[in-house]
Amino acid sequence: MPNFVVFGGSGFIGSQLVARLAATGSRVLVPTRRRERARHLLPLPTVDLVQIDTFDSATLQRLVQGRDAVVNLVGILHGRRGRPYGADFARAHVRLPQKLAEACAACGVPRLVHLSALGADSHGPSMYLRSKGDGEAAVRADEPGLQWTIFRPSVVFGEGDRFLNLFASLQRRLPLLPLGGASQRFAPVHVGDVAQAIAASLVGARRRETIGRIYELGGPKVYTLGELARLAGAMAGVRGGRGRPVIGLPHVAAVALAWLMEWAPGGPLMSRDNLDSMRVPSVPSGTLAGFAPELGVARPASIEALAPVWLRRLGQQAEYDSWRTHAGR
Ligand SMILES: NC(=O)c1ccc[n+]([C@@H]2O[C@H](COP(=O)([O-])OP(=O)(O)OC[C@H]3O[C@@H](n4cnc5c(N)ncnc54)[C@H](OP(=O)(O)O)[C@@H]3O)[C@@H](O)[C@H]2O)c1
Using CB atoms within 10 A as the burial measure, which of 168, 243, 289, 294 is most buried? Predict the structure, then answer.
């Protein structure tokens, strides 16, 4: 029975991957900082959770010891500012993959699969992209002999995502949607396809072909951010399916709005660094003909095929909640 440890396995992409690996009969250990956040994984019979509060080398070696592969999905979208990036990005995107590569070498674990992002570049325009670039370099260079695979998805959509859902919920509350970076291009890729590609690199029949490769993952179609915002509102049924007007902001206004959104209660909804990331397109460099055949995704799913199902359901739920509030229940 293959045996994996998946860092970041409790998250949006990780939960899908862990379920997929468990369905193949693999044993999966998911380290998490908050066991509570990962409890949805507990019903999976071959999955174990372990709560950890530090990523020191001794802890990592203990978790990595005896596994067939280590998967790193840990990532953050927002962090303190700095040059080339602040301490939060350095810790999550650079030092952790570096320590994981070292732990693999120290414990004789041959395989490390790492999730990066399209546009990752040590000299990129944002802290997010620069730290992702340095994280990739740490995985590729640090330990000779390590069998690594790196995935670089565009923005990932699916139930529970943080972009279509955010656009839809903002349109339920606001009369119009002001948007920075509205003309930047994305190739959104479905969370199930990303999970499938990563799983193929671990348990697929052609997994050995993925060693030493960097895969860019994009969906079947390219959209501007403005088009995605409009689609999300329409698919969620806002204003009878017309959505709210989406107003593209000039750069200075977009920076000011992003700065305000950094202070949103419960954590930033958007940041100036996110805007900086949008200075480069998030579109695969090759054609959009699909995934490499060894990844086992013949036809990547489209937003049009899948998103209306859950966006409409959430829209109906929001309407119901608002009736209840008005009725004082
Ligand atoms: N979602 C996208 O559109 C997208 C696009 C391109 C690339 N990616 C990359 O794909 C990976 C997974 O993304 P996701 O959307 O699944 O993210 P997510 O839902 O936020 O999950 C990330 C996981 O990482 C762990 N984590 C977060 N911050 C951490 C920190 N400071 N220290 C240690 N662990 C931390 C969390 O685990 P616990 O809270 O359980 O500890 C969480 O489950 C990330 O590397 C991300 O950059 C995502």
Answer: 168
Residues 63, 50 contacting (CB under 8 angstroms): yes
Q: Is residue 150 part of a domain?
A: yes
At 239 the pLDDT is: 93
Q: What pLDDT digit, counting tens, does each position of 196-209 carry?
A: 999 999 999 999 99
Q: How far apart are CA 154 and CA 148, in angstroms?
A: 20
For residue 254, being part of any structural domain is answered with no
With respect to residue 76, please indicate whether it lies within any of the assigned structural domains.
Answer: yes
Whether the full predicted model's pTM is greater than 0.90, yes or no, is: yes
Q: Which pLDDT belongs to residue 321?
A: 72
Q: Which residues have C-beta within 8 Å of that of residue 8, sequence separation ≥ 6?
A: 14, 71, 72, 73, 74, 75, 115
pLDDT at 15: 98
> Residue 54: its pLDDT value, please?
85
User: Which of the residues in the chain have pLDDT under 70?
Assistant: 142, 287-289, 315, 320, 323
Residue 264 lies inside a defined structural domain of this protein? no
Question: If you measure from the C-alpha of residue 18 to the centroid of ligand 1, how many angstroms do you get, rounded to a whole number?
Answer: 14
Task: Look at residue 142 in the predicted model and tell me its pLDDT.
Answer: 61
Task: Please count the residues of the chain.
Answer: 329
3 near 68, Cβ under 8 Å?
A: yes
Counting runs of H as helices and runs of E as strands, what totals does the chain give?
11, 13
Question: What is the CA(184)–ligand 1 centre distance, in A?
Answer: 23
* Rounded distance from Cα 59 to ligand 1 centre (Å): 20
Contact (Cβ atoms closer than 8 angstroms) between residue 114 and residue 72: yes
> Are 120 and 132 a contacting pair, CB within 8 Å?
yes
The closest-lying atom of ligand 1 relative to the alpha carbon of residue 153 is 6
Ligand 1 shell residues, CB under 6 Å: 8, 10-14, 32-34, 37-38, 73-76, 92, 115, 117, 153, 155-156
Query: What is the domain count for the chain?
Result: 1
Domain limits for position 135? 3-157+188-217
CATH of the domain at 110: 3.40.50.720
Most informative mutation of 6, 12, 71 for ligand 1 (most atoms within 8 A of CB): 12
